[in-house]
Amino acid sequence: MATTAPANRAVPPYEKLRAAGIRVTAGNDGIRDTWSPYGNADMLQRAMLMGLKYRWRQDRELDQALHAITRGGAEVMGLADYGLAEGCQADLVLLDARVPAEAIVEPPRDRTVFKAGILVADRGECLF
User: Fold this and answer.
1) What pLDDT was estimated at residue 37?
2) Confidence (pLDDT) at 38
3) Which residue, of 20, 66, 75, 121, has the fewest CB within 10 Å?
4) Distance CA 62, CA 21 (A)
5) How far apart are CA 87 and CA 78, in angstroms?
6) Nearest to 1 by CA among 27, 29, 30, 23
7) Model confidence at 24, in pLDDT bands (50, 70, 90)?
8) Please, which pLDDT band fits residue 14 given cuts at 50, 70 and 90?
């Protein structure tokens, strides 16, 4: 199940679906298009929008949004080599945040990004 957590539409019952063993992810379906000028492909922003839509306030609730934009997406796509373990793809984003909830409610812009173990962005600056 996937959601964009739209402001003006109903959303899937995230917690009930997860409790039933259904994989749930979040994503962007458009980036500043005819339907919404707010899309920018930033998954941390999508997590924030999920938190607002689902009325999540506590850190443990916001952790669900983080799961949806990370592991949830990998689960829905059937990625076997996802995560922070030996043998995984080494795709990761490093950010300056003390806890996951802080990264969601106040997404830092200066991110360091690795794709397949190669540094592609350093503190918000694209290297390619």
Assistant:
1) 78
2) 75
3) 20
4) 19
5) 16
6) 23
7) very high
8) very high
Q: Position 47: which residue type? A: A
Residue 69: closest CA among 117, 104, 34: 104
Distance CA 75, CA 82 (A): 9
Strand partners, 118: 115
- Report the C-alpha gap between 31 and 108 in whole angstroms: 20
First-to-last C-alpha distance (Å) of the chain: 34
- The pTM of this model reads 0.89
- As given in the structure block, the two tokens for residue 71 are 């592991």
> Tokens in use for 25?
């992810």
Report the candidate in 87, 69, 81, 89 with the shortest Cα–Cα distance to residue 26.
Answer: 69
For residue 2, how many other CB atoms are within 10 A of its CB?
Answer: 14
